[in-house]
TrEMBL record:
Entry protein name: Tyrosine--tRNA ligase
GO molecular function terms noted in the UniProt entry: ATP binding; RNA binding; tyrosine-tRNA ligase activity
Subcellular locations according to the entry: Mitochondrion
Function: Catalyzes the attachment of tyrosine to tRNA(Tyr) in a two-step reaction: tyrosine is first activated by ATP to form Tyr-AMP and then transferred to the acceptor end of tRNA(Tyr).
Enzyme Commission number(s): 6.1.1.1
């Protein structure tokens, strides 16, 4: 009976753990991972998931897990002189507007105390989607600041907690995700975190941190066998219901029409125990999160203090990513601004930041980039001077954030597409560049014989760029109709063979923003 009481995460889900459980160690630009399936297969247990084999696997997994941590421990042996060179990351975050609250001001002192070893800091990411989005980027940025200041970063994938769903900031209970979806989502966001935090390595000469050290863990690895009776005995008896009820995320939901399920109510204890587990087993002493995570973070520091009866666990929150009007920053007309290039191209990601209003751009430069504050102040002063070229600050913001998320290659791709797709640009278009933005703009396919010798007025309507021939003629007379970035000046202009880029595509533009890619069959 007790084996079946696995806190909703028990033996029925063990089979999926072969794919969802992962330990990743990102070190010196290599990305190593240890899949459970491989561990089981190598020990003749690929088709058997009985308790004996599972125990055997756990022994193997713990050894590998410990190895990934020990590699970081070796690199954590900083001398006192090195500690003297560590900038105070809390002060940096505060200066840039990235600090909301601290559970204990001693964290500020620990960051600058030369006798204190580098901190181990973690941020959690539940795999509720295939990719992280712009709202998650702040957590990655704050982790990166800790790295750059000489501390150790741990990213925790919520393979277990995603099965419950965090009620923080939500008016409705999250939909339940099946095991296959969780597996795919876990792969996706793990890949994103590893790549983003790997893009900046060795690019911060002013900081002494080991930018190549990153550990990625999955909390399903310690939750999958935790029996509900053990949980109640070991954790539940230390949790005060009154304190849990007072959390902001709980109070708001209890006041709503839908209320809150017991499953969601326990989420804060699950996240709290994650912190305790990492504190006790991995030496993690700081948890970071958005301001809406304050209740979950303090649940962890409380459990550590009550169960382990020690101090030294800290929580730090940063503000949510909001625009000056109070609305969330990170939503486009097409939905969330995803960090994965498979869900949003570097070009479209770059373009999103170009459209940031002047009222927000300086603040976003401080919180979303690693530019020196003096350089940001110079940009702010330039914006107030006569002769300032509009969107200069926005272009700098777009370049820095795109480089951090997508790397130098992603930025080059975005810049190339941006320049090539600007109406009137002198950049020669090629098929690859046009295809690179085909997912981000409307497109259609037409037969070669249909297109050749067709008037641009007719093509604009056939391709869906404009609604009518009269609208096309009117735009053409106003100088706003373009073929492959070249202005069309005559109504008699027809598509010629040399107009078809590499014999494969055409790019039609109505003004600066409305474009259609025409694929030639």
């Amino acid at each position: 009976m007790t084996a079946a009481l696995g806190l909703g995460l028990g033996m029925a889900a063990v089979a999926s753990s072969a794919a969802t459980s992962r330990v990743f160690h990102h070190h010196f630009s290599h990305f190593h991972f240890f899949p459970i399936r491989s561990s089981l297969q190598s020990h003749g247990a690929s088709s058997l998931l009985g308790l004996g084999n599972l125990a055997n696997f756990n022994s193997i997994f713990r050894r590998r897990n410990r190895f990934s941590v020990d590699v970081c421990s070796i690199n954590s042996n900083h001398t006192i002189s090195e500690a003297h060179r560590r900038p105070n990351v809390v002060e940096i975050l505060e200066e840039r507007g990235l600090l909301e609250s601290l559970t204990n001001d001693n964290l500020r002192k620990a960051c600058s105390d030369p006798t204190v070893p580098p901190l181990r800091v973690y941020c959690g990411f539940d795999p509720t989607a295939q990719s992280l989005h712009l709202g998650n980027l702040l957590g990655i940025i704050v982790l990166s600041w800790f790295q750059r200041c000489g501390h150790r970063a741990v990213a925790l994938i919520g393979g277990a907690t995603a099965r419950v769903g965090d009620p923080s900031g939500k008016s409705l209970e999250r939909p339940e995700l099946d095991s296959e979806t969780l597996v795919n989502n876990t792969f996706g966001i793990t890949d994103t975190i590893a790549k983003v935090l790997g893009n900046h390595r060795s690019k911060s000469p002013n900081f002494s941190g080991d930018l190549n050290s990153l550990v990625i863990l999955n909390n399903y690895d310690w939750w999958k066998e935790f029996r509900v009776l053990d949980f109640l005995k070991q954790v539940g008896r230390f949790a005060r219901v009154g304190t849990m009820m007072s959390k902001e995320s709980v109070k708001k939901r209890l006041e709503s029409e839908q209320g809150m399920s017991f499953t969601e109510f326990t989420y804060q204890l699950l996240q709290g125990y994650d912190f305790l587990h990492l504190f006790e087993n991995e030496g993690v002493n700081v948890q970071i999160g958005g301001s809406d995570q304050w209740g979950n973070i303090t649940a962890g520091t409380d459990l550590i203090r009550k169960i382990l009866q020690v101090e030294g666990a800290y929580g730090l929150t940063f503000p949510l990513l909001l625009k000056s009007d109070g609305t969330k920053f990170g939503k486009s007309e097409d939905g969330a601004v995803w960090l994965s290039p498979s869900m949003l191209s570097p070009y479209k990601f770059y373009q999103y930041f170009i459209s940031v209003p002047d009222a927000d751009v300086v603040r976003f430069l401080k919180i979303l980039t690693f530019l020196d504050m003096e350089e940001i102040s110079d940009l702010e002063r330039d914006m107030k001077k006569p002769g300032y070229v509009p969107n200069t600050a926005q272009r700098k913001l777009a370049e820095e954030v795109t480089r951090f998320v997508h790397g130098e290659d992603g930025l080059v791709e975005a810049l190339k597409a941006t320049e090539a797709l600007r109406p009137g640009a002198e950049t020669t278009l090629d098929w690859k560049t046009i295809e690179g933005i085909a997912e981000d703009v409307p497109s259609c396919s037409l037969a070669y014989d249909q297109v050749l010798n067709l008037s641009l007025v007719d093509l604009s309507v056939s391709a869906g760029l404009l609604e009518s021939k009269s609208a096309a003629r009117r735009l053409l007379k106003q100088g706003g109709l373009y073929l492959n970035n070249s202005r069309v000046d005559s109504e008699s202009k027809k598509v010629e063979e040399e107009d078809i880029v590499d014999g494969k595509v055409l790019l039609l533009s109505a003004g600066k923003k409305n474009k259609v890619v025409v694929r030639i069959l």
